[in-house]
Amino acid sequence: MDAATYQGFTTELTRRAGADGRFRGLVALGSMAARDYLPDDFSDHDFFAIAEPGHAETLRQERGWLPRPEAISHTFRETAHGVKVVYRDGHLLEFAVFDLEELSLARVNRYRVLLDRGDVATRMEERARATARELQGTAPDDAWLFGQWLTQVLVGLGRHARGEVLSGRARLDEAARLLCLLLARHVPAPEASVLDGLDPLRRVERVYPGPGGELARAMQGDSPGLARALLRLGARELSHVPAFPHEGMAAVEARLQGLYG
To answer: Which InterPro entries match (predicted)?
Structure first.
């Protein structure tokens, strides 16, 4: 979906919500919010619909309030509040419907209020602050992150060598996610503000074009190659961090060498 079509969809969605008395508010999320970065040809529409009391469940079940409902090809209920919709042209909507009190269940970082019939902007600001506090309060320490990263590589290698290729790759993919968390925490970058605290893999290639690109290429290859890249990148980018597991790293490198040369 090109930029003009994307914006047209957003405008029509906002118009429809504004004309429907069941809506108290509409909030754009992620790239739809157009904060820090703009939507591109691959962006979905992510949003919260805020319902007036008594209407939230009806809006979760109905699709007629969406733009071009006749062009919808598939829809399903993802969570108690969330819905996903796929259009015939492949465009995806991911949205949740809350009433004002249910907003306390949401986690949010980037957002833009498109419709507010009372208290929506205030509640969203509260949720953004609360989400930031929750993420900071539950963030694991460096020793845990490095330990998990290193042992995920080790277990992934062992399972791959045993023939459990799918399970082994899943462990290595988790090690990649942990590496990205550590990069965001310890490697400054001019565009660090566009990283996503809710998904550490988002926009890593843009913020860290060198290591991010190297990791992305390795993830397109085989599992032993990905393990080598994870260890190489960890040593190169993060060995200055006091909690870096130098001795453990040597042990896992030796294990990799023994398995794959």
So the answer is: NT_sf
